[in-house]
Design goal:
Elements lengths: L2 H15 L24 H5 L9 H30 L5 H33 L5 H6 L1 H18 L3 H22 L7 H4 L1 H4 L9 E6 L6 H8 L1 H11 L9 H11 L1 E12 L5 H13 L3 E10 L7 E9 L6 E3 L2 E3 L26 E3 L9 E2 L1 H10 L7 E5 L1 H6 L7 E4 L6 H4 L3 H10 L1 H5 L4 H5 L9 H7 L5 E5 L1 E2 L5 E3 L4 E2 L3 E4 L4 H8 L1 H10 L1 E3 L2 E3 L2 H5 L12 H18 L3 H8 L7 H20 L10 E5 L2 E5 L2 H7 L1
Parallel strand pairs: 1-2, 3-5, 9-14
Antiparallel strand pairs: 2-4, 3-4, 5-6, 7-15, 8-10, 9-10, 11-13, 11-15, 12-17, 16-17, 18-19
Helix pairs in contact: 3-4, 4-7, 6-7, 10-11, 12-13, 21-24, 24-26
Length: 637
């Protein structure tokens, strides 16, 4: 998308491949600029519709656009073939190539204008599209007809000037609609690849790429809602999800491949996780493409602290070996795991419904205060204690040795304003610190109910109100961990709350069996797990009976708490020790033994009496971990 990047690429290739006594290599025809995700196929352009299946109306319109496309492509194809055949020994050779390329691009400019118009229309709001059909689309149809007539009758100076003025006006209108975006229409940029005489010759035989990374939640904010909607509809075939941008590059790349061809793409390891997997590799594998080789996770060799994946994909039959993480395997699935290890069709289980929640989303820091301030307000007026509660977040669980809330919050629940105003001390704080912030936001509910949290989660608090404790999991966490917490607090939206209160459920959730399920069903960033209830918990099948698990749960939990209290270290540091082969502290060795006993008890609960878990220090995608063996992990999953 950056013209300077194109120039740098030309210079790099010249420096690497040519001697200093040779002219600057002419590569303008091969290195092109534009947004490679925004573009039309020849089929879409010919039927004058972005929909893959032409309607009867679109089919009738082929008559007016098809001759223009064919003539332009044939002219450009002839000129570009001349460019490729010419030598580049002298400066005059470069000049001749430049003239041929200019001529080729001029022959394509009316077709490219039509392609840009189709993209600009696809990016517009649906309500505006009929208006564009009646105006700019109609103007383009007239313009094409005028050019066709002028071509047949030979251009007069007057006709040439009129047509050129109409073209420039329409070009400006389309550029305004595109709002600075520059589509890249692959078949128009490389007609020798996509307009070849023989169908079997079309497309690239090999694609190698390192697509740019952008997190799925950032696409709308940085590239626009219209851009994201376009990606979902025209590249992902309507498959929605918070997919990272690289997934769409994978989908675009396979569209550009010829049969019996191959691509190799780099991505962050999230390409095989969560929504990014479902939108990208998940759909690619279902369509019949073969992942012939993959490295699921490795550290990026540069300065960035990120783990990346390398994926080789074959279009057509693959008779060679399949290699996963440098080991031969029978088949590789879209999780970049051994095929049959995972099942793409995973569903939420009714038995797990209404047992998992995320905490309250405050969306305003003004609700939060230090414990001393909260205590002062309660000392001033004990009624303030009705709306002042400890506030637990993920960092408290991961880093504090007793997992206690580090701050307090004002909590007006889902009360009407009049009821909240009965607590004037706390209302004064919310008026001063929360209301101004909410007024500057776009969220309509947040503006209208400014004294409440953006997400109050009444169902969560109603469910746990009759319980003595509940299981809590940090959503973003280095290790899959859960803790028991008292119910009389406010939980942050960065926490997953499971409404169980028996030790047997702690055993299942904290076990390696559930941890591995969560890892493969969730997305991650680096070593950090993102535990989403819908993907990790609601789909998780519990054993038919939890009988006999409470005892090991109590012993494990009490021993883990004792370690943290004695060392004043939180869960993250404790599990850093747990997974460190060099850590031989007696208490940690005992914790490993209890964890092994806990996993074995869970395996028996599932009826896996013959499964050897083979606990030890094993290399995993997250590094060295004290866990079950890779063979056992695959069998468990």
């Amino acid at each position: 998308k950056n013209p300077l990047a194109v120039e740098m690429a030309k210079l790099s290739l010249w420096l690497i491949t040519l001697g200093k006594n040779r002219p600057f290599t002419f590569l303008d025809h091969a290195l092109r600029r534009g947004d490679s995700l925004l573009g039309v196929s020849l089929h879409q352009l010919t039927i004058w519709s972005m929909d893959a299946s032409p309607t009867s109306g679109a089919a009738r319109q082929m008559v007016w656009i098809e001759p223009l496309i064919n003539d332009a492509l044939q002219t450009a194809l002839k000129l570009r073939r001349q460019i490729r055949a010419m030598p580049e020994r002298y400066v005059r050779d470069i000049g001749a190539k430049a003239r041929l390329l200019t001529e080729a691009e001029e022959s394509m400019e009316l077709v490219k204008l039509g392609a840009d118009l189709l993209i600009a229309t696809a990016l517009c709001e649906p309500k505006r599209q009929p208006l564009l059909q009646d105006t700019i689309h109609a103007e383009y149809t007239v313009l094409v007809s005028a050019f066709e007539e002028a071509r047949k009758q030979k251009f007069t100076a007057s006709a040439r000037n009129e047509s050129r003025a109409a073209f420039q006006k329409l070009r400006n209108d389309v550029d305004d609609l595109l709002q600075g975006r520059r589509p890249f229409h692959w078949p128009l940029e490389f007609p020798e690849v996509f307009a070849a005489d023989l169908e079997e010759e079309r497309g690239f035989c090999t694609i190698v790429s390192n697509p740019p990374f952008q997190g799925g939640s950032m696409i709308t904010g940085q590239l626009g809602t219209d851009y994201r909607d376009y990606l979902v509809r025209y590249l992902a075939d309507g498959k929605r999800g918070i997919a990272d941008l690289c997934a769409y590059f994978f989908l675009r790349a396979i569209e550009l491949m010829r049969r019996d061809s191959q691509l190799g793409l780099l991505a962050t390891k999230t390409i095989a996780q969560g929504d990014t997997r479902e939108v990208g590799l998940g759909q690619i594998v279902v369509q019949g493409y073969t992942i012939s080789r993959a490295i699921a996770s490795r550290e990026w060799p540069g300065d960035a602290t990120v783990r990346v994946a390398s994926v080789w994909i074959r279009k057509g039959r693959w008779e060679g070996q399949r290699i996963l993480d440098n080991e031969p395997v029978a088949q590789i699935d879209s999780y970049l795991e051994v095929a049959d290890l995972t099942d793409s069709n995973v569903y939420a289980l009714s038995a797990n419904s209404l047992h998992s929640f995320t905490g309250s989303k405050l969306d305003a820091i003004g609700f939060v205060m230090e414990p001393e301030e909260a205590q002062h307000l309660i000392n001033e007026d004990q009624h303030n204690g009705d709306v002042l509660l400890p506030f637990l977040n993920a960092d408290d669980i991961n880093t504090r040795y007793d997992q206690s809330p580090s701050r307090w919050v004002i909590n007006f629940r889902d009360w009407p304003l009049a009821e909240a105003q009965a607590y004037p001390d706390c209302m004064k704080i919310v008026l001063e610190k929360v209301k101004p912030q909410r007024e500057n936001q776009n969220d309509k509910v947040g503006k209208e109910l400014w004294w409440q949290y953006l997400r109050t989660r009444p169902a969560l608090y109603a469910t746990i109100s009759k319980m003595r404790r509940t299981l809590v999991i940090p959503i973003h966490t280095k290790y899959m961990i859960c803790v028991w917490k008292d119910v009389n607090i406010v939980f942050s939206h960065a926490l997953c709350i499971l409404t169980f209160d028996t030790d047997a459920y702690f055993v299942i959730i904290q076990s390696t069996i559930h941890s591995e399920w969560a890892r493969i069903r969730s997305s991650s960033l680096g070593e950090t797990l993102r535990y989403t209830p819908s993907d990790c918990f609601e789909t998780f099948p519990f054993p038919a009976s939890l009988e006999g698990l409470d005892d090991i749960g109590q012993r494990y939990y009490q021993h883990r708490q004792a370690i943290m209290l004695a060392r004043h270290e939180g869960l993250t540091k404790t599990y850093n020790r747990f997974h460190n082969p060099e850590e031989q502290m007696e208490e940690i060795i005992k914790l490993r033994a209890l964890h092994r006993e806990m996993d074995e008890a869970v395996a028996r609960a599932y009826g896996w009496d013959d499964l050897a878990l083979e606990h030890g220090f094993h290399e995993t995608k997250q590094g060295v971990r004290y866990t079950i063996s890779e063979e056992a992990r695959r069998e468990v999953l």
